[in-house]
Amino acid sequence: MSGNAWARPDERGSHEVQLAELGLKYEYFERLISEGEEARAGATEDDAKNAAGTFDYFARVRTLRYLLRTEAQWKGYDPKQSPLTVNPDKTMAIGVLLGDARTGLPGNPQPRSHRPAGVAKESLVARNQDLDPGLFPLPQQGEPEAELTEDEYARLATWYLLTYRYTARKQGFIEVRSELSLPSRVGPQGKIDSWDRRILLPAIRFKRTFDYPEGDTGFDVPVEEW
Predict the structure, then answer these.
(1) Which of 2, 44, 134, 148 is most buried by its number of CB atoms within 10 A?
(2) How many percent of the chain have pLDDT more than 90?
(3) What is d(CA 180, CA 82) in angstroms, rounded to the nearest whole number?
(4) How many CB atoms are located within 10 Å of the residue 54 CB?
């Protein structure tokens, strides 16, 4: 597996600059996407059809939490079984979410979440609407486990690593487009369809070396979606 394709800077600067403003590094997201793709290799023809996507999802959540915990002192947080990772200042959280084919591409229309957001995510998105979509304080050292009060939860800005995975069977590669984005609205179909801020990340291509069970197109983890 290897390599990324292109970066798409916007008026705020490159993705590296924008991530650094939030106390983050692109390498975190590149690695968790790669770890998720590797995890799909554990799915066999005897597994459920959604096994590869489930393994991918679990690996992404685990890798994101590990990297942010060990390198930036972030902590895991699971409001209503919606796994997030929260910075030490308790001002910003990051989750993992599937998007549609517009994910990682500039301009309009903006991408939508692949599945309905569910109650937990709708609540988090509603809180985002009352927050400034600009910069947040950089993480501080030595913060204890992530236990948020009601006031802290109300002030939490929840971002998502939104990804879209495309398989080019004839060409023999898989491409994952992604962005770290701050949602602002859940549309009439229950899907997140509007974003206050989008940090577009480089697309990553992988050689298609594994035969995943047919029918798997992404994550299929009910606990994550509801």
Answers:
(1) 148
(2) 48
(3) 17
(4) 21
